[in-house]
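#onboarding

Welcome to the new folks! Below is a worked example of what a typical request in this channel looks like: someone posts a single protein sequence, and someone else replies with the predicted structure as tokens. Don't worry about understanding the tokens yet, we'll cover that in week two.

Example request:
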Amino acid sequence: MKKTRIKILKNGPYEVSGPVPLDKAVAISSRDGVPEKWKKGPALRHDKVYHLCRCGRSAGKPFCDGTHKAVKFNGGETASRKPYARQAVIYKGPALTLADAEVLCTVGLFCHRAGDAWTLTERSGDKKARAAAVREACDCPSGRLTAIDNATGRPLDPPLKPGISLVEDPYRKASGPLWVKGGIPVKSSKGFTYEKRNRVTLCRCGRSANKPFCDGSHMPFKDGDKRVQ
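Example response:
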């Protein structure tokens, strides 16, 4: 069986190989625009090996149609090769520690659902505040935020199966990044492999200053894809 991976092609798309399902993840927000939960969207048909647009200009999004060549897309990767632990700032509360690598922020705003994750961590001696902080960290698609249990020292990561989800935000009328789940390795166009993590988000609008990762620059990028199973 071919190895599951995502390979970044130089100034081109993401090449996805192996049994990697592709679907949509829809952010469901309250009336005031605060994201409350993720809803699993429809699955998309794809080949065994498929190519996802990275420049944001394909007429067949989310798949590549070669437009990156016509627009001379500069997909140069600028993200740090440092592991997450060396990029994250640590916030310690009485029962919970919050690791925060701000450079990975996608502006998903789940960290503000029930009072922000940092304040909830400070109040984590209270069981409800602790539980809310863990939920907010786990709903962060990029893994910018990681909740760590002080008693065991273990990260409280959500159990995610390998797959890719196209993030959609109906409230803001925008399409977000590629949410890569379950530790799928991402190989750079330069030949090295980024740190394998349970969740990362890859830019698909072409605008991120932290390529290949999303930095929230996609607003108001819109996918517009309608090809679903």
